[in-house]
Amino acid sequence: MASLEKVIQEIGPMDEIAMAAARYRQDSLTKPRGSLGRLEELSIKVAGIKGKASSRFHDKVIVVMAADHGVVAEGVSLYPQEVTAQMVRNFLRGGAGINVLARQAFARVVVVDMGVATILESHPDLVSRKVARGTRNMMRGPAMSREEAIDAIEAGLEIVQQEVEKGLDIIGTGDMGIGNTTSSSAITAAMTGKPVAGVTGRGTGIGDKQLTHKVRVIEEALKVNQPDPRDGLDVLAKVGGFEIGGLVGVMIGAAVHRIPIVIDGFISTAAALIVTKMAPQLRDFLIAAHVSAEKGHRVALKHLGLKPLLDLRMRLGEGTGAALAIFIIDAAVKTLTEMATFSEAGVSEAERKAE
After folding, report:
1. 318 counts as catalytic
2. What is the architecture, at CATH level 2, of domain 2-55+337-345?
3. Which of 112, 220, 88, 109 is nearest to 168 (CA)?
4. Catalytic: which of 5, 154, 318, 338?
């Protein structure tokens, strides 16, 4: 754990000088000040993260972490556990929603087996970091040991390091795992103190009766495990998932390397709740892609103080919202770097009159 704490200490603050320079250029571009709204804010935030006033994205990556959850045995999902492995194969074939949207954003998709219950066949595009064949049933005890939680985080760190060596300069977080909205609801309830019923949604599309059952399962899991909200690692180990732990590691690694982190939906935001408890300074590096249809997602985003870019009623996961947001963030950065200033274009600026 000491090595993980040391890595966290390497996360630096936002670069205020770069942000000031980006803000100055935004105010000098051929447009009324503030007329590009949140695009201007995004470009300034990216400058603060990357430590330079203007930049371009050359290597966009969406990391899709996949793992299974033992709590599926309690009947919390419409789909059987086998779907996790089946969808991983779909990712590798390029046929999933994330593949389509990533192509539109010119982003690579990195698929990682963090703990799929099925033994997956070798594939050149599959990164194997399996901690175990799924977590244990959190309703009966801890989902994983503390050591396994650390292993999952360290796997995420390693993935980012490998991608940085390839040129990574912006990263989106994605997930796949039947049962992971159950874990994410448990994490959100534990970290925010909100009632389980207020943060638990329909996941794969369950009906009212199954939703009531899902809430009871989560309540029992929290009662049995008593996760400590002051200790993000404890919450992860007791009610989390291996893919969620992997995303925690991805976020830490990206922040260390000053790479913008575009978090996707509910599962990614549950990971953000954990990582910002472990490393509060990391929050500045997060960009919320969208707000999903899962009711707990709004609660988690509000707790983090993050304002999502999009609200499209999506709830697929996989990093699909992150892919759309990366396209927008890229556009924001390009307006800063490619638009002409008033002086460059020979356009008269607005007169500054006293009120």
Report:
1. yes
2. Orthogonal Bundle (1.10)
3. 109
4. 318
